[in-house]
Amino acid sequence: MFSTRNSRPAAWAAAAVLVLGPLAAACGDDGDGGSGPTTTPPTTAATPESPTQGAEPADPAAAEQQIKKNWTTFFDPSAPTDEKVKVLQNGEALRPVLAAFSGDKNAARVSAEVTGVQFTSPTRANVTYNLMVAGNTALPDAKGTAVLEGDTWKVSQKALCALVELSPNAGAVPGC
Question: What is the DSSP letter of 107?
Fold first, then answer.
């Protein structure tokens, strides 16, 4: 009998290696022997935030639609890096991380399907999504966060970094 409980860690590991292996290699230690600034690892994107009083934006339906569209764009293998930068919090600073994905044959098979959005404030939301590999769900019900930056709902830096940290090969990734 198939056990969802026992297969979930294996699915996370498989997706992390498949999706993030090339990323970690491209963004890891450059071997210069220097030590950059130390950073505290981000909390996992799987830890949802609690809603606060007045937790929705002025137009929650439009915000949810934009979140779904932008998450789809972010995980769309055919979307150019410039488009992904626009829908990622601190996208310009994280451009090297995104560039590591472009042209990788494994990353070209990854997409995401947003299955739920819960606003925790007028400028933040918990996002539930399925991470797909070649059209098959590899990470069901993954958790992430979206943030409102200017007038655009974006994939949070915290969500990207939590995915990067899933890779057993992830070294120091700039911005995470």
Answer: G
In this structure, what are the phi and psi dihedrals at residue 131, rounded to the nearest 5 degrees? Answer: -90, 120
Res 160 pLDDT > 70: yes
- Asked whether residue 42 carries a pLDDT value surpassing 70, the answer given is no
All structural domains of the chain, each given as residue ranges with its CATH number in brackets, are: 49-162 (3.10.450)
| Tens of pLDDT, residues 62-90 | 999 999 999 999 999 889 999 999 999 99
Half-sphere exposure of 69 (CA within 13 A, CB side): 10
Q: How far apart are the first and last CA of the chain?
A: 39
pTM across the whole model: 0.72
Q: What residues have CB less than 8 Å from 146, skipping those under 6 apart?
A: 67, 70, 71, 117, 124, 125, 127, 153, 154, 155, 156, 159
Distance of CA 124 to the CA centre of its chain: 15
On the question of pLDDT at 136 being above 90, the answer is yes
Tokens of 135: 């059209």
Structure tokens at 85: 């930068």
Give the ranges where the chain is alpha helix by DSSP (H).
4-27, 60-74, 81-86, 95-101, 157-165
